[in-house]
């Protein structure tokens, strides 16, 4: 899959040129194939038909390259601000915004990064600020709107609610090697996320002043 | 952490000797430190103060060694058959059965395996049959008992319900580097798993013959 100038021009955290997108795409391919530990600038340069000097000028360390990969490719603009007026539709719009990448790229890249996050604090920090936090903030915004409409209780633990769907989707992707399709996402929303949200509206035993 | 003969003697899927447990413990340490791709029999032999010949006699390929590691160390006997007569207590008993390993060992070892599962079908198959399926079967047994008691609807999708808690626990462990403690597990059971189970008891729009 190659990205065109048109798709690269949609709003993103950073504006990057076509050539940079090609290099990041090549880096994700290498990451997926050999893992983070064995990823070298030599391999990325060869895959992107770029010089190592070009890579090092832009990314001092491979962690910088990979953080750019993730924040560039894993985000889908459409998921940022769904506003349908209905929690279920907002959740589906957000979770089904696929970002245009193939399953094996996303699953492979995520799988390659999970094991090294705890071995590299700077990588962990970069992924947290550039990827996890923006995603969580977008999810929390959807829940806050639902809270304002009365679909979620005022004292609900949004931090827990916001992680349910990503946790289920990532878990299923890791076990099956494929990201869940729209129909499956809807099943998970209907059978897990919405019941958990609805439960925040009812009186809980032991709750209250 | 070292395992004593006493802990190694509790019921497990396979009976292994003390020396084998020591080697598997050393292999997990190496796995966590360098990842699966860079794990070598040289490194495991050095860490376990064993000869490579000893290792190769028992495990023809490093995937065999790692599959034994996972099925030996990741299972906790206590989680197999909780039977308290109450879904909530069964879920907590199962999820809180820690197996005696330190957080960084479990989180590190799992994180090291996730990225390679899809690159090695034999490893995937071994982990599936020796680890994922027994765990899923134990979880499904708890749900079936609850279903028989009327705590879960007769037509509930147990395959989805059984994955909720593992997905949430693994997700949180990967993001924080620590396994959730008993109090947090109880929060997740109360705010997510039990509402999803309870929702299977109510009439759903469009459901029915």
Automatic annotation (TrEMBL), chains A, B:
It comes from the Bacteria. Keywords: DNA-binding, Transcription, Transcription regulation. PROSITE patterns: HTH_TETR_2. Gene3D superfamilies: Homeodomain-like, Tetracycline Repressor, domain 2. SUPFAM superfamilies: Homeodomain-like, Tetracyclin repressor-like, C-terminal domain. GO terms for molecular function: DNA-binding transcription factor activity; transcription cis-regulatory region binding. Residues 40-59 bind DNA. Residues 17-77 form the HTH tetR-type domain. PANTHER family: HTH-TYPE TRANSCRIPTIONAL REGULATOR RUTR, TETR-FAMILY TRANSCRIPTIONAL REGULATOR. This is TetR family transcriptional regulator. It comes from Intrasporangium oryzae NRRL B-24470.
